[in-house]
Design a protein that fits this description.
Elements (H helix, E strand, L loop, with lengths): L13 H7 L4 H4 L4 H10 L12 H16 L4 E5 L7 H11 L7 E5 L11 H5 L14 H12 L5 H11 L3 H14 L14 H9 L4 H13 L4 H8 L4 H9 L3 E4 L2 E4 L2 H10 L2 H14 L3 H11 L5 H16 L3 H14 L5 H17 L3 H14 L3 H18 L4 H12 L4 H14 L4 H15 L7 H18 L5 H13 L9 H11 L3 H17 L6 H6 L1 H7 L3 H18 L2 H18 L2 H18 L2 H17 L3 H17 L9 H10 L3 H18 L2 H17 L3 H17 L3 H17 L3 H18 L2 H13 L12 H11 L4 H8 L3 H15 L4 H8 L18
């Protein structure tokens, strides 16, 4: 069981240490050696390795330890005052508990109402596996029993009712009021009870009555957090048994399992508040000499120092780096703040350098606004140009996330002349300028070339700066349609392993997932995008978490997992809003609108598009305008409003052209379809030629498929049905190489229209049915209705309810081979729940009840010629 205290919140892994303190070292002996060492180092049972402790390794070790304990019987992790769990412990416990499926493990946590919850139990165990119980005020009857037990006597009913009203049923308040009334007497009826508004005033009144040595002992215990009796005695330099006995007699603190336990955390807070500053400093000095780890030692040393001290500041800075390496970003920020306070005012260079470090830690801890204020102050006051340049670049990175405006570019451009004479700093400035030049690809290339030139002059470049330049080189290649240079990728990832950038979002690997997504490598994209998200979680990097989630909704959309995509988009929106990151909030609006457009949820999509465009208009955010504008055209096209669709789709293309962006655009085929629907064949031909050129230059299968569909639509509009048929076959073949279910269904819909015009009614029917089946499974309501309407126009009876649809047939074939639901879902880019629902329908149609029967049926072991069309040819 752990009982974290308020004073322990800035520390690292204290709650985890309390939970596992009773676990004997022998119980950990069976863990894999890297896990055993990581856990032993975290519990301070052995010295940590030279390398920084990897949070994921520690989380895995905790999971393994709990699983081993659960093998011998049920395990309950109990945490009282969970609101005071340190951030690193919360991250590690959440990581471990999410991976305890099947183990006999429970978590019991208590917190005060209104306090934050660093460990989200519902998110860890799932909403169906967790229960929240609110402990409300005590009733009059319950309060009577509690007070009678504590005070050893019953209370008059009238007094009890008055105390209940004054305390609001809060047991601690009621107990303290009664003790006060025992001293001063109960005032006459109608007269208010003498209850201070601040409960601490009640506690202080009892504390001042204690003997001096007892108060001193309690002060040591309060400043230690949750100490053992031995630790308190060692720090006090004498036996404390009598002191603790006196505290127990007053009901302030007791000894529980060899540790000093305050009856309520407010007692500890009041003890500290009532002590003199000199007294507190003296205790901190004694505790610093006896602290078990560098972080506690540095913290006590700082609080003991009467003034600035270079040595103390350096010790605090080192402790901050150690806390950050362990994933304790909030602890690192607090230690750096203490280091800044301990830095002599005359040492401008050290103060400014530590301020920049503090801003970085605050950004990672999810406080970008505070970080922004600190960096602005450095820029205003620093006299040395290189210091101003570093502060500008750090602020540009934050502004780039906060408001998505041109202020980030202005900061980077101002940093370039200030970095003159320092090739490495200059390379950093030019690379950052390239990064924020999202609205001008030509400017981006120019700054990238200069960054490469300057970095070549540095004999042994900083790995973080080199990785930043390599990231821009690779990103530029992707934007230009060139393949990723494997050697550059490997070099950048090796640099990241050696010296990862402070923020997870700033790392090469964070961009790699986004690039792979744009290149149709969805499996590779998922690996790196989920790696980035997990890294942000494991390292406590709240500032990077919105970016880490931002690309996942679109990935889920393309791969056919729309429910999961919407949940991720909403999570992205919540994260961006909580941290005040405006650019990420606009990206979240785009993700939500994109999903809702595909789903045909008109009202929600229009509201999100309108909000995003209004936000972009406030500061000339061209990028948001270019990404969101085509969604309006796609929505109108789905609703059958081709004329209303054409203008926003054309506008989006013009904006991209103005930015110099030559990458394939998913909305171009929508523009071709809209233009043909309103009869503007010449404009459709020009758009088709442009998108075909881009697709062939970039050689991405999704783009090649879209271009082939556009050519098919154009050929059909010109009456060339043979050419249209050939082009649509090419599009379907490309879809097989970049399987995006929605895109393939749109192409199948076009294929059905072309087959029908060629009087190939059977092929048209099959294409419409297959298209409808995918749209229906995805939840694309507008296009599912369109496919049904087109199917009715063929004049051929729809498939009966007993026949397997195209999707059901493919699922049946995969299930018959022995694939699990999850494996079949991955192969067909559907969700496991969709596979499960389809299998239930398949069993009903075929009159079977198991996979074994399905395998026998498809293998020829049973004949049901009247019930199945499993052998129907696949539409390609």
């Amino acid at each position: 069981m752990a009982r974290p205290a308020e004073g322990e919140v800035p520390l690292t892994l204290t709650t985890l240490a309390d939970l596992l303190d009773a676990v004997a070292p022998e119980a950990l002996a069976g863990l894999p050696e890297p896990q055993r060492r990581a856990l032993s180092a975290a519990l301070l049972r052995e010295a940590p390795a030279r390398d920084a402790l990897e949070p994921r390794l520690l989380g895995t070790a905790v999971r393994s330890a709990i699983t081993a304990l659960a093998a011998t019987g049920p395990v309950v992790l109990a945490i009282d005052d969970v609101q005071w769990v340190d951030a690193t412990s919360a991250t590690v416990l959440a990581f471990a508990c999410r991976r305890l499926a099947g183990a006999r493990v429970g978590l019991l946590a208590a917190r005060r109402s209104g306090e934050p919850l660093p460990l989200d139990i519902g998110a860890v165990f799932g909403p169906d596996a967790s229960e929240t119980m609110r402990v409300g005020p005590l009733s009059v009857a319950s309060l009577h029993h509690m007070l009678a037990e504590r005070l050893g006597r019953p209370l008059p009913r009238s007094t009890l009712v008055r105390v209940h009203e004054a305390s609001g049923g809060h047991p601690l308040f009621a107990l303290e009021i009664m003790r006060l009334l025992d001293e001063d007497g109960v005032p006459p009826a109608g007269t208010p009870l003498p209850v201070p508004t601040d409960v601490r005033a009640l506690v202080r009144r009892r504390i001042v009555r204690l003997p001096g040595p007892t108060r001193e002992t309690l002060l040591v215990a309060a400043m230690l957090g949750s100490p053992s009796v031995e630790a308190v005695a060692e720090a006090a330099g004498r036996s404390v048994d009598n002191d603790l006995a006196a505290a127990g007699a007053e009901g302030i603190a007791t000894i529980r399992d060899g540790r000093v336990a305050f009856a309520h955390p407010l007692y500890a807070a009041a003890i500290v508040a009532e002590s003199a500053e000199a007294e507190r400093r003296a205790v901190h000095a004694r505790l610093a000499d006896r602290a078990p780890d560098a972080e506690s030692r540095a913290r006590h040393r700082a609080l003991a120092a009467p003034g600035p001290s270079p040595e103390t500041a350096a010790e605090l800075e080192a402790a901050a780096h150690e806390a950050g390496a362990r994933g304790g970003q909030r602890a690192a920020a607090e230690l750096l703040e203490l280091a800044l306070g301990a830095t002599p005012p005359a040492d401008d260079e050290a103060r400014q350098r530590r301020t920049i470090e503090l801003a970085d830690a605050l950004q990672r801890a999810g406080e970008p606004s505070r970080a922004e204020g600190l960096l602005s102050a450095v820029i205003e006051r620093a006299e040395a140009p290189p210091i101003r340049a570093r502060a500008r670049l750090a602020l540009a990175r934050i502004r780039y996330e906060i408001d998505a405006a041109g202020s980030a570019l202005a900061l980077c451009e101002a940093a370039i002349p200030e970095a003159a004479g320092d090739p490495q700093l200059g390379a950093h400035a030019h690379a950052m300028t390239a990064i924020v030049s999202w609205d001008d690809f030509r400017r981006r290339e120019g700054h990238l070339r200069e960054a490469i030139r300057l970095l070549a002059q540095v004999a042994d470049p900083d790995p973080v700066v080199e990785a930043l330049v390599l990231m821009e080189r690779c990103g530029n290649d992707v934007s230009a349609g060139r393949p990723l240079d494997r050697a550059l990728v490997d070099r950048a990832l090796e640099l990241e392993r050696r010296a990862p950038a402070g923020g997870v979002a700033d790392r090469f690997s964070a961009s790699l997932g986004a690039w792979l997504k744009s290149m149709d490598d969805f499996a590779g994209a998922r690996v790196w995008l989920e790696h980035t998200e997990q890294a942000a979680i494991d390292e406590g990097d709240e500032g990077s978490l919105p970016y880490a989630v931002s690309h996942l909704p679109e990935l889920e959309l393309w791969t056919g997992h729309w429910v999961e995509g919407e949940a991720l988009a909403r999570r992205h929106m919540a994260l961006a809003s909580e941290l005040g990151l405006e650019s990420q909030r606009r990206q979240a609006l785009y993700n939500l609108a994109l999903l809702h457009v595909h789903q045909g949820r008109e009202a929600e999509a229009r509201a999100e598009i309108r909000e995003a465009l209004a936000a972009a208009a406030t500061d000339g955010d061209v990028w948001t305008e270019t990404t969101v504008t085509p969604l309006l055209g796609m929505l109108e096209l789905g609703l059958g409003n081709a004329a209303a669709a054409a203008e926003p789709l054309r506008r989006a293309g013009e904006l991209r052209d103005g930015m110099g962006q030559g990458t394939p655009r998913r909305h171009d085929v929508e523009l071709v379809e809209a233009l043909l629907a309103i009869g503007d064949v010449d404009a459709a031909a020009a758009a088709t030629a442009a998108m075909t050129e881009r697709a062939e230059r970039f050689q991405r299968h999704s783009a090649l498929a879209a271009a082939a569909r556009a050519r098919a639509l154009l050929a059909a509009a010109r009456g060339d049905l043979d050419g249209a048929s050939s082009a649509i076959d090419t599009a379907l073949a490309e879809h097989d190489l970049a399987p995006i279910p929605y895109d393939r269904a749109r192409t199948l819909l076009s294929a059905g229209q072309i087959r029908r015009r060629r009087r190939e009614r059977g092929l048209a029917k099959a294409a419409f049915e297959a298209s409808h089946e995918v749209f229906n499974a995805l939840g694309a309501e507008l296009w599912a209705r369109r496919a049904l309407a087109e199917l009715d126009r063929t004049g051929i009876r729809r498939s009966s309810g007993d026949e397997l649809t195209e999707t059901e047939r493919r699922i049946a074939e995969l299930a018959a081979t022995g694939m699990t639901n999850r494996e079949a879902a991955a192969a067909l880019f559907l969700s496991p729940k969709t596979i499960e629902a389809n299998l239930a329908r398949i069993y009903g149609k075929l009159g079977i009840s198991s996979r074994a029967e399905l395998g026998a049926l498809l293998g020829g072991g049973s004949e049901r010629p009247d019930r199945t069309t499993v052998g129907k040819p696949q539409m390609r």
